[in-house]
Amino acid sequence: MTAGGPTVSFVVTVYNKARYLPRVLAALADQEGEFAREYVIVDDGSTDGSAALVREATRDWPNLILIEQANAGPAFATNAGLARATGDYVKLVDGDDVLRPDATLKLLDAIRRGGAGVAFGRHGRYDPDASATPSSGQSANPPETAPEIWPDPLPRVIRAVDWTPSDMLARRELLFAAGGCDERVFVQDYSLFLRLAGLGPFAQIDDLVADCPLAGDGGGDRMSNRAAQETHDLNAALGGYLADRADLAPALCRLAARRATGRARRFVRQNGQGSRLTLIGPWLRARLPLPLDRVAAQALIERSCAAIRAVGPVRLPGSQPTMSAPAKK
């Protein structure tokens, strides 16, 4: 361990991930690099023995904190872990994602070379039933490449993201400045990406840094297999971000409304029946080349969320405001 070097806090959120945890924890232990590290693992009310598995597998790990809490959802679990992290940097890890051996080193290097507070890589896929993951043994990453710097990442993040939290590393001070995840939204990742994108540049590397379970894998409670929840919370995160940003430019408000209503319209068309009519008005209005202020954009996004909830099951944070009553600055 290099004296005076950086400290990385690995914040891992777990909900019914016993099937995946042996690989996930082994990959954490195998992270390459001469940096100090701490581990904060949050068990969000698992009922499959995940917490006991973590306790047994990490009993000899130094600098480990295991938080066991009643199930509250990914946003609350992530924030609980962030609150206990003390490192210079935070490496978020979903409880079923397997880090590549040099993931943390590559992301630290991208931040250092790019002068950014946040770095992202790419993720691959693994079969949970296979005997090994792509990240086992020698790294499968391509040779080191210079990071791509996004000086103003917010418009790009509003349009779309294809990252997971496991693809990201960020300066802890920036995560705190962002306020962590939006706890008005059940799923955590997009609200955090939006908040970070409003604070400064991102660095992206074209390297694999993590592997996620195959998209069709039905084990655990993987949120990406729940289309209604995921689609709803992408839009809810946009609505919450607009609610908190009174200074947001009208062009970005309009972009957010167009993305949300278009996303909801596609989802309702594919999965709904009569409820698709609730989107026709707001979708047309969002596409018209007219000014669209923050309040009007929020209203469109709220209607898009309501249309999705009318089609599929969506969990809302139990004690927090929903999109019909967002918190104001």
From TrEMBL:
CDD domains with a match to the protein in the record: Glyco_tranf_GTA_type
Domain Glycosyltransferase 2-like: from-to ranges: 9-134
Pfam family name, one: Glycos_transf_2
Record field: compositional bias (Polar residues): 132-142
Region listing for Disordered, in residue ranges: 122-151
Family annotation (InterPro entries): Glyco_trans_2-like, Glycosyltransf_2, Nucleotide-diphossugar_trans
PANTHER family from the UniProt entry: GLYCOSYLTRANSFERASE, GLYCOSYLTRANSFERASE 2-LIKE DOMAIN-CONTAINING PROTEIN
Protein known as: Chondroitin synthase
The organism of origin for this protein: Oceanibacterium hippocampi
